[in-house]
Amino acid sequence: MILIISVENQINPTQNQPSAQPEVVTTPESPLPPIKPKKAWKKWVLIVILVILIIGLPMGGYLVFNKIGVKPKLSTVTVQNTKPTPIPDPTANWKTYNDLIYDFELKYPEDWEVKNLGAINFYSPDYSESGGGSTFKIESGIHFSYYVSKHIDSNGTLITSEKSGFARSTELQIGSNKLLILTNSLPSKESKFSIAEGFLTANGLDYTFNMYSKTNQDILFNKILSTFKFKTTASPTPTLDASTWKTYTDIDYPFQIKYPSPGWTIRTTYGKSVNNTGNDRVAGIDINTGTPGYGSVLVINIIDSKGKSLEDWLRLNMSNSYVPTKINFQGNTAYRYQYPTQDNKLDTVEIYYKYKDKIVFFAWNLISGVDQPTADQIMSTFKFTQ
């Protein structure tokens, strides 16, 4: 459709007509294209698609990974099951000290020196001391020692470690007993050296441990005591065939004993038959192996107790340097003393028990040709005939 618009001047007839004006002719413009109506439904389609994408993508991902069972692929890390590195034993290369008297052992540094001076003493190679009494001073190194004793208070009661008056510092469990370790962490001006002490009460005895050093050595002291343990001694077994043994019957006192044969001999040492009753001995013999160069191997003495109990007699006649072990000997209460050599090898063993009004005494020397099982076997044949 072509729209032609003409504009003409209209003159009011009541007005004076002006002079004639030239006619303006307007050139018609190019025809405009027809306006097509917009398609609104496309816009809504796009909106719906966007909504579906916004809501559907997260939900679809959830369904894919959780409902359908598709799992994201994870990288695999292999973990090796390694065993923990064992902690090295700081005492592995130490020497072992065996106490044959009280049947226990402990370890000490391999370069230390051991001396038996009544108490057992251990010295580091750099140990030195000076002075004496109130002027005693440790110049360098470490001195460790121990001794075994009974402590009797005024009431005659055995003093245990708990009553010793020291403050408890550390405890170590030794079998069914507790070892108390007490220390003074730094040397005092008066003592001029550091002291550490340990106390163990077992089997009716007190075991006392000491360490003296120029500087504090509490850690080393604890390490040494941590190696302490009692040993279990097996019952001795016979080492000789007793079927051929001879029987000795004493003529001064009614007892018998068997001894190996041939070669072994018996000598009477005490009794009226040999006109020797010194030291209240009423009878006595020595048993010898017959090996040249050796003296008496086993000694038996019968001693008049003078009415004293076994314990009182021992207290009056035996040294306090060594503490005996209470044992049972053929059904009797007995006390066993053991004496070491300087290098702590078991030397002499003595056993005392009371029979009626007499003290029976056995002693044997383990270094002079007889071992302990053999000595025990010989003593097992001892008996009174009345």
Provide structural commentary.
The chain has helices at 41-67, 218-226, 310-317, 372-379; strands at residues 95-99, 104-108, 113-117, 119-123, 128-130, 137-140, 142-149, 170-174, 177-183, 194-202, 205-213, 229-230, 246-249, 255-259, 265-270, 281-288, 298-304, 325-329, 332-340, 346-355, 358-365, 383-384. The chain is mainly β and 386 residues long. The chain folds into 2 domains: 95-230, Mog1/PsbP, alpha/beta/alpha sandwich (Protein Transport Mog1p, Chain A); 242-384, Jelly Rolls, CATH 2.60.120. The strands form 5 sheets. A 7-stranded antiparallel β-sheet has the order 3-4-7-11-10-9-8, covered by helices on one side.
Main attributes?
2 domains; Jelly Rolls; mainly beta; elongated; Protein Transport Mog1p, Chain A; 386 residues; disordered N terminus
Per DSSP, the total helix count is 4
Q: State the order of secondary-structure elements, H for helix, E for strand.
A: HEEEEEEEEEEEHEEEEEEHEEEEHE
Strand content bin: 25-35%
Count of beta strands? 22
Main β-sheet: number of strands, strand sense, barrel status? 7 strands, antiparallel
| Radius of gyration computed on alpha carbons | 54 Å
| CATH third-level topology of the largest domain | Jelly Rolls
How far apart, in Å, are the first and last alpha carbons? Answer: 166 Å
Shape: elongated
Helix content: 10-25%
Largest sheet, spatial ordering of strands = 3-4-7-11-10-9-8
**Which CATH top level class of the largest domain fits?**
Mainly Beta
Q: Give the second-level CATH assignment, the architecture of the largest domain.
A: Sandwich
The class by helix and strand makeup works out as mainly beta
